[in-house]
Design goal:
The protein is an alpha/beta fold. The protein has a domain of 189 residues: P-loop containing nucleotide triphosphate hydrolases (Rossmann fold, 3-Layer(aba) Sandwich). It contains 10 helices and 10 strands. Strands 6-7-8-3-9-10 form a 6-stranded mixed sheet, with helices on both faces. The protein has a 4-stranded antiparallel sheet with strand order 2-1-4-5, with helices on one face. It starts with 17 loop residues before the first strand and ends in a 5-residue tail after the last helix. The structure holds adenosine-5'-triphosphate. The site of adenosine-5'-triphosphate (ATP) has 10 residues, from helix 1.
Length: 272
């Protein structure tokens, strides 16, 4: 599967508009549902972080929102309308999906990787000045962090409406991860991109997010404003994010559970 794809033309979006959304969504592989009854709106100008233990269903969620997997129940909505469009169509419409695998073409130079995605060197180096002296170098000879900067520059350079990011931080130093996440957050705030970030670096993800969803065994068990989740993080990590905590109850003084999420979204005016 292609790792980073983006659309060809700019579409309009209003801050606070729900640009991509899972509504009562169940999805999985073959007849086996992995994710059940998921409500998750991605909002223009906001970063949502989806966190959870290994195998919780985070990647499956992204694949379904991207159109790579079909929904088994419920729906995916694009710009307020139900969609079953395949991934390449969603990408033409403004989706950018950065998968776990590094997506650069190793045998091509950094410049040619950008050219292939129709992104200018100027745009990429404005996002990541570190890439400036590396343009003539084959992407395969860049460091992991530089490759990931190139990946993110390619994705953001196409001015997407929605960005799905799966484990941007895989194998990278915390400082590099911070650079990447800061660039994504800046794009969200300045260009109104709606971002959904799946991340194992929970603290770093929460620090750049507006809203956080905690997924466990295919269901969102907790969600809330990033500040609120961040202030309860130790309890949340113990209850939801460690391998041996699967049957723990949520902390009492906690952010919202999945059942009371919808009220908050309505309050913040995020639904289209
Ligand atoms: P991680 O953080 O480890 O990447 P995740 O939360 O992204 O985990 P998923 O990759 O969505 O989890 O996997 C959720 C469940 O679906 C797991 O039990 C996994 O084994 C299963 N799964 C993933 N891919 C497939 C597949 N192609 N066919 C069948 N089952 C799969």
């Amino acid at each position: 599967m292609s790792a980073t794809v983006a659309r060809a033309a700019v579409s309009t979006r209003q801050p606070g508009e729900v640009v991509l959304e899972a509504r009562g969504l169940s999805c999985g592989y073959g007849q086996m549902s992995v994710v059940r009854d998921l409500d998750l709106p991605i909002v223009a100008g906001e970063v949502a972080a989806l966190i959870g233990p290994n195998g919780a269903g985070k990647t499956t969620t992204l694949l379904t929102l991207a159109g790579e997997l079909p929904s088994m129940a419920g729906e995916v909505r694009w710009m307020g309308e139900p969609t079953t469009a395949p991934m390449h169509r969603r990408c033409q419409q403004g989706l950018s999906y950065v998968t776990e695998e590094r997506s650069v073409i190793m045998g091509l130079t950094a410049r040619d990787n950008l050219r292939l995605a129709d992104v200018s060197v100027e745009r990429a180096t404005a996002l990541f000045p570190e890439l400036t002296p590396l343009m003539k170098r084959p992407a395969g000879l860049l460091s992991g962090g530089e490759q990931q900067m190139l990946t993110v520059a390619r994705a953001l350079g196409r001015d997407p409406s929605v960005m799905l990011l799966d484990e941007l931080s895989l194998g990278l130093a915390p400082m590099v991860v911070q650079r990447l996440l800061d660039a994504v957050r800046a794009a969200s705030k300045e260009q109104g991109v709606g971002v959904l970030l799946v991340e194992q670096q929970v603290r770093q993800a929460i620090a750049v997010a507006d809203r956080v969803y905690v997924m466990q065994r295919g269901q969102v068990v907790l969600s809330g404003a990033a500040e609120e989740i961040g202030s309860h993080l130790s309890e949340i990590e113990a209850a939801y994010l460690t391998a041996d905590s699967k049957d723990e109850q949520p902390p009492t003084d906690r952010p919202q559970s999945q059942t009371d999420q919808s009220q908050n979204h309505t309050e913040s005016g995020n639904h289209a």
